[in-house]
Inverse folding.
């Protein structure tokens, strides 16, 4: 009789533990993983394309124009994904307080910096301050997203 009662109690507890684990996995761990994956992709693109973030001359040929348009689109896409991916994390404010994720303020600022980078892809290098401004945007984006 004692074994039957123990089994009847164990089954609902096991089901509850399984459901709780799935909830944590689906609403916390997976979205955190997606956010970190996106930040890693941004880090890669910033490093790989850092020298291509401004035009090399006033006259751009068709091939270079196409490459710059793709680069511009890539940074805009990454920027537009950043906030929704972050907001999909359940208990985001709590996770931010315990430093499990970045503050939403930093995410929004990084998004703005990425959009600024995409806008500056066609800027002319003769404007030395524009070139420096792009470099500052890259540096600030790295700081905000905690990319070393």
């Amino acid at each position: 009789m004692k074994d039957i009662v123990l089994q009847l109690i164990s089954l609902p507890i096991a089901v509850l533990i399984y459901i709780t684990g799935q909830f944590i996995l689906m609403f916390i761990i997976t979205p955190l993983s997606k956010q970190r994956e996106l930040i890693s992709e941004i880090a890669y693109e910033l490093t790989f394309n850092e020298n291509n973030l401004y035009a090399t001359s006033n006259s751009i040929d068709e091939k270079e124009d196409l490459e710059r348009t793709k680069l511009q689109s890539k940074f805009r896409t990454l920027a537009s994904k950043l906030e929704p991916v972050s907001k999909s994390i359940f208990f985001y404010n709590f996770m931010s307080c315990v430093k499990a994720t970045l503050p939403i303020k930093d995410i929004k600022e990084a998004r703005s910096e990425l959009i600024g980078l995409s806008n500056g892809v066609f800027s002319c290098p003769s404007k030395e301050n524009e070139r420096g401004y792009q470099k500052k945007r890259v540096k600030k984006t790295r700081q905000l997203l905690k990319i070393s």
Remarks:
- The two ends are 62 Å apart (CA to CA).
- The chain has one domain: 35-144.
- The helical segments are 2-48, 62-87, 92-97, 104-119, 128-144.
